[in-house]
Design a protein that fits this description.
The protein is mostly helical and about 120 residues long. The chain is about 80% helix and about 0% strand. The structure holds protoporphyrin IX containing FE (HEM) (2 copies). One protoporphyrin IX containing FE (HEM) binds near residues 34 and 109. One protoporphyrin IX containing FE (HEM) binds near residues 39, 42 and 106.
Length: about 120
C-alpha cells in the first residue's frame, strides 16, 4: 500500500468535512459543534497529514507492515471517534450510547499511534 498517499487522501477528506462544519458554525452562529469541528480537523486532517509526510520523509518506515496496520487503525478509529463526537454534540445520541464504541475507537487510534511510534524508533534514521 502507498501509506503516505492513503493518509493524505484520508486527511483531505476529513479537512473538507471539517471546513464545511466550520463554515456552518460561522454562518449559523451555533458553535456547539466546535469540539467536533476541532477533532475532525486535528485528529482527522492534521494528524493524517503529519503521518503522511513522516512516511514520505522516512521511506524505510513506509514499507513496514506496521505502516499499513497504522493506516487502517487510524482510519477506522478516527472516523468512529469523530462520528461519535459529532452525534453526541448534535444531541442525536446520549453519552451512555457511546459505550463501548467510544473507548474501542479511542483504543484503535492509540494502537495505531503505538505502531507508528514503534516504527519511528526502528526506522526514522
Ligand atoms: C474555513 C475554515 C474554517 C472555519 C470557517 C472555521 C470556523 C470555526 C468556528 C466558527 C469555530 C468556533 C469558535 C468558538 O466557538 O470558539 C472554530 C473552532 C475551532 N477551529 Fe475552526 N474553522 C475553520 C478551519 C479550521 C481548521 C483548518 C482547523 C485546524 C486545522 C480548525 C481548528 C479549530 C479548533 C481547534 C477550534 C476550537 C477552538 C476552541 O474553541 O477551543 N478550524 N472554527
Ligand atoms: C482519540 C483521540 C482524542 C480524544 C479521545 C480526545 C478527547 C478530547 C476531549 C474529551 C476534549 C475536551 C472536550 C471538551 O472540552 O468538552 C478534547 C479537547 C481538545 N482536543 Fe482532543 N482528543 C483526541 C485527540 C486530539 C488530537 C490528536 C488533537 C490535536 C492534534 C486534539 C486537540 C484538542 C483540542 C485543541 C481540544 C480543545 C478544544 C476546545 O476546547 O475547543 N485532540 N479532546
Amino acid at each position: 500500500m502507498n501509506v503516505s498517499r492513503n493518509f493524505m487522501l484520508l486527511g483531505s477528506a476529513f479537512l473538507i468535512v471539517g471546513i464545511v462544519l466550520g463554515m456552518y458554525m460561522g454562518g449559523s452562529g451555533d458553535h456547539s459543534l466546535a469540539i467536533s469541528h476541532a477533532h475532525i480537523n486535528l485528529l482527522g486532517f492534521v494528524l493524517s497529514a503529519v503521518f503522511a509526510l513522516t512516511y514520505k520523509a522516512y521511506p524505510a518506515m513506509a514499507v513496514e507492515r506496521l505502516a499499513s496496520a497504522h493506516f487502517w487503525l487510524h482510519f477506522v478509529g478516527a472516523v468512529m471517534v469523530n462520528l461519535l463526537v459529532f452525534l453526541l454534540l448534535a444531541q442525536i445520541i446520549t453519552e451512555a450510547a457511546m459505550v463501548p464504541f467510544a473507548p474501542i475507537s479511542e483504543f484503535l487510534v492509540l494502537l495505531g499511534v503505538l505502531a507508528f511510534s514503534w516504527n519511528v524508533v526502528k526506522n526514522a534514521n
